[in-house]
């Protein structure tokens, strides 16, 4: 029965702009053909679609073929749309529930999107790094973030070509006006899959542990109109501040205090301008790339500002 | 935005000439911890400022304990900043610094009424760091841009801080445009004399 409902949802989607239908209406007509008259599902679907085409006074080619349209992941901005994608599996995560077969990120030239496939759909498993044509996936929205759900009707075709995964990172710039607590030389919980930052040697999950040193900076960029929080990981922190992990550990040992590291780092970066690029995670932009901005450039060009001022 | 996590106040860019003309402060709620805003004459509220300029003088003006006063000069005037025991990092930065030096200050506006009834405005620093000439140049251009933004929006309908500025100050905003022009010209002149500003290390 799940099959019929999925078909009904697709047909409903095809005609929702043209006819006043409910998914239940469609499913009832399909069920009647399939269950009472023993019509194969595909034939029942064709028949139901034809009758709705008649009702709406439309030709078949005025309606999306399978209900799904070829789409780029970056263009997905509506809930419950049926789309076909050509994507590479950019990342696979551990499912946190038995009902989920696979969860991860799919990417194409426009960026990446989260996907979920459910155990009940009994689909073949996607492999990380492999490119696929996926037809009939459904878009989903949660708190403004879009994802796609693979389902029983989804067909998965492995592609010979490799799909390029595009950059969907954000770019922010401004004066670095503050670094937040938990920046500098920190210790993380060493337990498997736990990377929590320790507070006074304690992990909020695993209690007292022997932590592993790491470098991190949580900073605030401010352009005078808005603030944006930014995180620099170990590598980016070393590049930003010129202080690497070994030097940081030495500094902390000499001072018998880890906070000297964060203070020295703050001295070197607070009050300067930076442009930072990277993906957004919650409140933070993760700094994949960054550069210091100095002097005047296209963003703040003295010549054009003078012209602007004089025309006021 | 969740109500339980107050968003961080943005650091306004304002030249000393405008900053020192400000005097009116206000809160937008009765809550004791509500942010205190300084009303800028070009029509914006400022709970925090970001200033880059030349530290020209510093002096410990404290009696019982250290209380550092710094003069920070931009192309239009002088910011005064005071740091004592409750701003230990900024106070220690001022203690260590040798003027003249380019410094960046992030801080909160503070007003003080003198005996003759006039109001002095200063910056209570959250941080003071040394920067290079190129960072200072960028600040001048950026502050000019933000000042022009405010002047352009000054006559917009529904600009409540512009309306407030008219009521509280009645100062001609053209003065601040002229200050921005002068600041931008000072960048140009310096460029012609020295070429590109040196990049900080």
UniProtKB/TrEMBL annotation, chain A:
Example of a GO MF term: DNA binding
Sorted alphabetically, which keywords does the UniProt record give?
DNA-binding
Q: In its keyword annotation, does this UniProt entry include Metal-binding? A: no
Q: Which GO terms describe its biological process?
A: double-strand break repair via homologous recombination; response to ionizing radiation
| Superkingdom to which the source organism belongs | Archaea
NCBIfam families named among the record's database cross-references: PRK07217.1
Protein's UniProt name: Replication factor A1
| Species annotation | Halobaculum gomorrense
From TrEMBL, chain B:
Q: Which domain of life is it from?
A: Archaea
The protein in question is named Uncharacterized protein
